[in-house]
Design brief:
heterodimer, A: 270 residues, alpha/beta, Rossmann fold, seven-stranded parallel beta sheet, 8 helices, 41% helix, B: 258 residues, 7 helices
Chain lengths: 270, 258
C-alpha cells in the first residue's frame, strides 16, 4: 500500500472531546477529511452542532453528544451513544481541558475545590474517556488514543499548578496506557501543541504575537490537523507512548539564550 | 480544514545519505512513494552497501521517480559537498535532507582505541554536520527545507559497550535541537526520528539478543523499517512547518516502560 494511503481513516470512528471549538473542532474536521466518521463531544450543544454541520459538509457522519468529561456518567453515556450509532470506536482524542483564571495563584491560596477541579478537567476526564472506550477497542481488536497535553506539562509556568500537574500526569498516564494495552493493538500517543491563538486575540496579545517562538510565529490552526491524522492512522502503527510537540521550536531551546529569548518575564506570567 | 494533499511530496526533491542501511532505505522509498524525487548515497562505500543502495534505487525508479545513486565517504567534506551540488544540478533543487548515516560499533571502552573512537564519531556525528552544512547552501537560499536526522534509542539511553556509538547518537540529537533554532527563521525545520529496535539493525543481529528484546518490547516484536519511515513523510511534508527541534520516537512503547 502506498504510504499516503496509510493515512486514510475510511471506515473508522473517532471521538473528539472538546470538539465544539478551536483546536478540537480543527482536529475533528481533519479526521473527517481523512475519512473518519466523528463523534463531537463537549459541554455546549450549539458548538458541537456547528462542528457536526461542518463534518457533514465534508461528507462524513457526525454525532454531536453533549458531554461533561468530569462526570463519568456523562462520559459513559457518550461512549454508549457512539457505539449505538456506529457500532465501534477506533480513535479517541482526549482534547478537552483547560484552566480558569481564578486558578492562577500560589499554592498557599489554592482551595481543595480548585485543586480537584483543575486535576479533574485536565487528566481525570481523559481517564474516564479511556475507561469507557477501552472495552470496545479491545473487543474490536485495536484502537488509537491521542491525548492532548501542553508545554506546561513538561515545563512549568508561574501560578499554573493544577494545569502543570495534570498535563504532566496525562503524559505518564499515556505511557502507562502504551505499556499495558500494546498487546491489545491499542496505541496511545500525545500531541503537545504550542501557541495556537486561533480565534482568541487576547491569547495572541499575551504571547506577544509569538515573536519569541523560534520559527517567528504562532501555530496556524490548520497545522494541527495533519499531526492528529498521522497519529490516528496506520502510518504511525509502531508509535506508542510517545509525544509529538508541534510548537515552532521553543522546547528545543527553552529558556537558554537561544537568540529568541527572553521568553516572557517571570513576573506577570499567568 | 485540511486535505490529505498536505502530506504529498510531489514536486519535492530529497537526498538520503545512508540509504544503504535498512532504515535509510525504507525512508528513501517512502519519500518516493509520497511523490518526491530521491537521490540516494551510501554511508561508506562497500560492496554490501552498494548493493543495498542499488536495490533501493530500483524501488525508487519503479515508482517512476527521478534520482541517482552515489557511493561516497560521508566523512569527506569534498564528497559530501559535491553530492549536494549534484542533487541540485540533477534534480533541480533540494527540499529534504535525510541523514541516515550509520556505523554501528560496540566494544568495551577500555579497548576502544582513539582512532576507533574518532572513526565512530566521524561517521555517525561529523558526517551529519557536514551534510547539514552542505544542504544549508541551497536550503538557506530558497528559504525552505526539511532536515531529518535518523537516530536510535541509543541516542538517549546507554548500552554496555556502546559508549562511542551512544555518544555520537546523542550528539546528533542535540545538533538537531541547536540547528533547529539556528535556522528556524529561514524556513528550515530540523528534526530527528528516533527508531526503536528495528529489523536489520546490525547491533541486534544476534538471534538470542533479538529474542530477549522481543520479550522486553511492549509490542512484542521489532519494528519493520517501513514503520520508522512513515514519520519521515509527515515531517518532510508542508504539513509539518511548525514542527522543529523535536525527536519523534517510534519505538513500540519501549521508552514508556521501566
Amino acid at each position: 500500500m502506498n504510504v499516503l494511503e496509510k493515512l486514510r481513516l475510511d471506515g473508522k470512528v473517532a471521538i473528539m472531546t472538546g470538539a465544539g471549538r478551536g483546536l478540537g473542532r480543527e482536529m475533528a474536521l481533519a479526521l473527517a477529511e481523512a475519512g473518519a466518521d466523528m463523534v463531537a463531544a463537549a459541554r455546549t450543544q450549539a458548538q458541537i452542532e456547528e462542528t457536526a454541520t461542518q463534518v457533514r459538509a465534508i461528507g462524513r457522519r457526525c454525532l454531536a453528544v453533549q458531554t461533561d468529561i468530569i462526570n463519568s456518567a456523562s462520559v459513559n453515556a457518550m461512549v454508549e451513544a457512539t457505539i449505538a450509532e456506529f457500532g465501534r470506536v477506533d480513535i479517541l482524542v482526549n482534547n478537552a481541558g483547560g484552566a480558569s483564571s481564578g486558578w492562577n495563584k500560589p499554592v498557599e491560596a489554592i482551595t481543595d475545590e480548585q485543586w480537584r477541579a483543575g486535576i479533574d478537567v485536565n487528566v481525570t476526564g481523559a481517564f474516564y474517556c479511556c475507561r469507557a472506550v477501552l472495552p470496545q477497542m479491545i473487543r474490536q481488536g485495536g484502537g488509537k488514543i491521542i491525548n492532548v497535553t501542553s508545554g506546561v506539562g513538561v515545563r512549568a509556568m508561574r501560578y499554573n499548578f493544577m494545569y502543570a500537574t495534570a498535563k504532566a500526569g496525562l503524559i505518564n498516564f499515556t505511557r502507562a496506557l502504551a505499556l499495558n494495552y500494546a498487546d491489545k493493538n491499542i496505541q496511545a500517543t500525545l500531541i503537545l501543541p504550542g501557541i495556537f491563538p486561533h480565534d482568541d486575540p487576547m491569547m495572541l496579545q499575551f504571547w506577544q504575537g509569538g515573536k519569541f517562538i523560534p520559527v517567528g510565529r504562532p501555530g496556524k490552526d490548520e497545522e494541527l490537523g495533519p499531526l492528529c491524522v498521522f497519529l490516528a492512522s496506520d502510518l504511525s502503527h509502531y508509535m506508542n507512548g510517545e509525544l509529538v510537540a508541534l510548537e515552532g521550536g521553543g522546547l528545543a531551546g527553552g529558556q537558554v539564550p537561544t537568540g529568541f529569548a527572553p521568553v516572557l518575564p517571570l513576573e506577570g506570567v499567568g | 480544514m485540511m486535505s490529505l494533499e498536505v502530506f504529498s511530496l510531489q514536486d519535492k526533491t530529497a537526498l538520503v545519505i545512508g540509504a544503504s542501511n535498512p532504515i535509510g532505505r525504507a525512508v528513501a522509498v517512502a519519500l518516493a512513494e509520497a511523490g518526491a524525487d530521491v537521490a540516494v548515497a551510501t554511508t561508506l562505500p562497500s560492496k554490501r552497501e552498494e548493493e543495498t543502495l542499488q536495490a533501493c534505487f530500483a524501488e525508487i525508479r519503479a515508482l517512476q521517480r527521478q534520482g541517482f545513486t552515489q557511493k561516497i565517504d560521508t566523512t569527506s567534506e569534498e564528497e559530501v559537498s559535491s553530492l549536494v551540488q549534484r542533487t541540485v544540478a540533477e534534480l533541480g533543487r533540494l527540499d529534504i535532507l535525510v541523514n541516515a548515516h550509520d556505523l554501528p560499533f560496540a566494544k568495551p571502552l577500555s579497548d576502544v582505541a582513539l582512532a576507533e573512537w574518532r572513526r565512530v564519531l566521524d561517521v555517525n556525528l561529523t558526517g551529519v554536520y557536514l551534510a547539514c552544512r552542505a544542504a544549508g547552501g541551497p536550503m538557506l537560499s530558497q528559504a525552505k527545507g526539511r532536515i531529518l536526522n535518523m537516530v536510535t534509542l541509543l541516542g538517549e539511553r546507554g548500552m554496555v559497550n556502546g559508549s562511542a556509538y551512544c555518544a555520537a547518537q546523542a550528539g546528533v540529537l542535540n545538533l538537531t535541537r541547536a540547528l533547529a533554532l539556528e535556522w528556524a527563521r529561514q524556513g528550515i525545520t530540523v528534526n530527528a526520528i528516533g527508531a526503536g529496535w528495528t529489523e536489520g539493525m546490525e547491533l541486534i543481529a544476534d538471534p538470542a539478543l533479538t529474542q530477549q528484546l522481543t520479550r522486553y518490547l511492549p509490542h512484542r516484536r521489532l519494528a519493520q523499517p517501513q514503520e520508522i519511515a512513515g514519520a519521515a513523510v509527515y515531517l518532510a511534508s508542508d504539513a509539518a512547518g511548525f514542527l522543529t527541534g523535536q525527536v519523534v520516537w517510534i519505538d513500540g512503547g519501549v521508552r514508556s516502560r521501566l
